[in-house]
Every structure is written in C-alpha cells, then in structure tokens.
Design a protein that fits this description.
By secondary structure, the protein is α+β, with helices and mostly antiparallel strands. The chain contains 13 helices and 19 strands. A hairpin with a 5-residue loop joins strand 4 and strand 5.
C-alpha cells in the first residue's frame, strides 16, 4: 500500500523516473495461479492494472499505472530450473539477466539473453531479444521452447510451436502484451564454456575506420564468424569534448580456452588494426560481464531516458549516413544540455540471424526478409537529468530522425521494421511487420481475449487491436 517501504520500492523499480506513476497499490504474486486469480478478479471488478518485469522500457505507462489502477510486480516470480539433461532452462519472468547468468555460470551454459544484466527477462524475450549469441541462433525468441501463459479468462496454458496453442506461441513472441501474461519461459541452453567479452573505447580520430569496421562485420565478419558479436556504440555529451567517442562491446563464444584472444571475426575492432584507448575484453563469464557493466549503468537509474529505433540495409554507406546525421544534429541541438548522455548503437544483423529466427520454433511476426540482409538495427538512447530539458530532447529526437530517415530513404536503405525493445512510444511498431502478419495478430488476439482485457484494462505497450486495417 502507499506510504510503505515495499510500495515505494515497487513504484521506483524503473529505469526512467517518469515511469514512477504511483499506482493505487502493488501486488507481488508468487505463482501462475495467483496471477490468474488477480486477472479474474480485476476483470470482474473492471479494475485497470499493469504488469512489470524488469522495468527497463523507458516509456511511462508501458509497465506501470497511476492511482487509477493496480501494479502486478513480478518480483516473486523468479524461479530458475535446469532440466535433467541440461538442455532447457525454465525462467520466471521476475528475473533479470544477471540472475540467469549467475545461475548458469557453474554449468558452462548460456541462453540467448540480454547483453546487459539489469534488463528484465520478460520484456526482453517477448520483444524478440538481441543477444551475443544471435549470430549463431537468431533472436532469443527462436530459442524459446515453451511458454506458460495466463489467458484473459484466467486459464493457465502451456504454448509451444507444435501444440494446440501454436498460434498463441507465434503471436506472443514479438506481438506485444495483448495476448496473455507469461509466467514461465522454457528456453534452449547452449554450451559456452569459454566466453570472451568486454568494452573497448577508441580515440575519436578512429571514427571513420570504426564505421568501416561495422559495415565489414555485418557484410563479412558475422558471416564467417557467427560466434563473434559486437555492439558498436558512439557516445557524446557536451562536457566531454566536441566529438563523439567510438566504442564497441566485443564478444566471442570460443570453443577452446584461448580461442578468443585473436578471434578473426573481431580483428577490425582490436589491436593492431584498431587500438583501443581502454579495453576490458578478457575471458569471463556472462555473469562477470553483467556485474562489470551494471555498476556504471546503475548510476543512470532514475534519470530521464528515451529510446528510438531505426532499421536499414547494411550498405557500405549506411552506418556513416546514420552516425554522422544523428551525431551532428545532436551536437547542434543539445550543446547547452549539461547533464545528458547521447548513445547511438549500430547493430549489424546477418542473414543467418534472420534465417534462424524465421525458420526455428514456428517463426515469428516480424516479417523480416532474410534475402535483404544483412541489416543494421539502430538504437538511439538518451539519458538526461532535468525536466526542463524534456522539450529540447523531444524536439531533437523528431528532427534528428526526420533527417536520418530522409537520408536513408533517398538511397533506398531504410526498412519499415521497428525493433520494439528499442522503440519510442510514438513509433509505429506493428505496421512494420507487414499487413498479413498484422491481420493474423489481430485475429489471434480476438480469439484469446474477445473481451479486450489485455487491450483495454491492462495499460501500456503497443496494442495490436488499435492498428487500423
């Protein structure tokens, strides 16, 4: 209840301070049966509600609700269980990825999970999930074997790609929160005894070479070395200098103890080709990596946050067009914003990544064409402190992306797909999936929730019922 320590904790367990909405009360069910009871009671009494996993999505109302409704927090749905044959990990939706990696570390196993430990499991997986392992196995959703789901009726079902709920299984992995509440994820595990991962920072003078390396990794490196992965990130803030700083998180899933030291797929991001000014790249578990990275990221919790997603064909000039247009606009429009961090992540996505995602466990609603790959998925991330800068930031996001999209469109490089986990609240996510997939999603939603409980009574997110035909 309000004015209690637990209430204050639950209301503030969000990445973005603007999501601290102060619900009427919070509840923390410990089982699917308890979730079912709450859903049935709220439905009968017409009480609005929201559900939160990790709380990382920086859109107010996506996973919280104000005093008109009740917050269901998944904090007590944190079970982790490895099958006897160690091929399947069952994960409760209240876990964060750091918890999962800590559990798996003694076994030398991984699942295609979040690359940042503090991110919650549920939203990440249901949004698709880009992983360090995606070059080998596709989006995380492709490694989901089964889902335990509480339907709007309160019924608890298990959905797989082969059983009677295969349509629900297809829709809920990427189709938003209109179909049910997932209370357990059963995910394929993979042997990964020798992982190398770390954060490389380069001199701003390397920007041109860094951009070339991103293109080449997407075009060739990820094809030849699918067990290598990168997250190239350009960062800038007005207090650190006039130029953006190129960085890269680099990862290698080695099959031998020393295999990551001179990994061919990462050669353009390591010495002697491109010498970092600082590097933490070593052999370490994903749990150790999550702990390393989360220390710095935790300092931004409670700031104001914003994402925006763009997708494009990985042509030779794609990443330079996006980077230079976005960062030049940032330096022009945000120079007087003191407490701000601008980050631009340029993620190459290979043909094999898309093929695995489309052809395993029943496919997905994304509608991505593997023949047009490789792609670049762009995550624009902004963190700022003062509410007085909100209007400036919003104006920047609109103008910068008008410029980026116009520049990409002029060369026929932009694609309509918007990756939901990196999207801004105003972006048209499902429209990028294609008309046929949208109609299919709408039909499945109507089948499993004809009373629109998860559309009208559960707040937040993108709702497939709201898309005009």
């Amino acid at each position: 209840m309000p004015n209690t320590t637990l209430y204050e904790y639950e209301n503030s367990e969000y990445w973005d301070v603007r999501a601290w909405l102060y619900p009427a009360c919070t509840i923390t069910p410990g089982s699917a049966a308890e979730v079912s009871t709450f859903v049935k009671n709220f439905s009968a009494a017409q009480v609005p509600f929201a559900i939160r996993g990790g709380g990382h999505m920086p859109i107010a109302g996506t996973n919280n609700i104000n005093s008109t409704g009740i917050l269901i927090a998944a904090d007590n749905l944190t079970a982790l269980a490895l099958s006897t044959d160690q091929q399947t990990l069952s994960i409760g939706p209240g876990n964060r990825w750091v918890d999962v990696y800590e559990y798996l570390a003694p076994y030398g196993l991984l699942v295609p999970g979040g690359r940042i430990g503090l991110v919650g499991v549920a939203g990440y997986m249901l949004g698709g999930g880009m992983s360090f392992l995606s070059g080998q196995y596709g989006f995380c959703l492709s490694s989901i074997k089964a889902l335990e789901i509480v339907l709007a009726s309160g019924d608890i079902v298990t959905a797989t790609a082969e059983n009677e709920y295969s349509d629900l299984f297809w829709a809920i992995r990427g189709g938003g929160n209109s179909f049910g509440i997932v209370t357990r994820f059963d995910v394929q595990t993979y042997s990964a005894p020798y992982t190398y991962v770390g954060f490389n920072t380069y001199s701003p003078t390397y920007v041109s070479q860094w951009l070339d390396a991103i293109y080449n990794f997407g075009a060739y490196g990820q094809v030849e070395s699918p067990n290598a992965a990168i997250i190239p990130i350009s960062t800038w803030n007005p207090l650190e200098g006039p130029l953006p700083t190129p960085n890269a998180i680099v990862f290698y899933d080695s099959k031998t103890p020393l295999g990551g030291l001179n990994a061919t797929g990462l050669q353009n991001f390591t010495a002697p080709t491109m010498i970092p000014t600082a590097s933490t790249y070593v052999q370490q578990t994903m749990f150790e990596w999550a702990e390393e990275l989360d220390v710095g990221l935790a300092a931004l919790k409670g700031w104001r946050q914003g994402f925006y997603a763009v997708s494009a064909i990985n042509a030779p000039d794609t990443v330079q067009i996006i980077h230079d247009t976005y960062m030049q606009t940032a330096m022009q429009m945000l120079a007087n914003v003191t407490d701000i961090m601008v980050e631009l992540a340029l993620q190459p996505v290979s043909k094999h990544w898309i093929e695995m995602s489309n052809n395993v466990t029943g496919g997905n609603p994304f509608g991505l064409d593997a023949s047009k790959a490789p792609y670049v998925f762009v995550d624009e991330s902004l963190s700022w402190l003062s509410p007085s800068d909100d209007a400036t930031i919003e104006n920047f996001v609109q103008i910068a992306n008008q410029k980026v999209n116009a520049a990409l469109d002029a060369k026929g490089l932009r694609v309509p797909f918007v990756y939901v986990n990196d999207a801004d609240g105003g972006q048209a996510v499902f429209q990028g999936y294609g008309e046929e997939n949208v109609r299919k999603l709408q039909s499945i939603r109507e089948k499993y929730d004809p009373e629109r409980i998860y559309t009208d009574m559960m707040s937040g997110g993108w709702k497939v019922a709201d898309i005009e035909a």
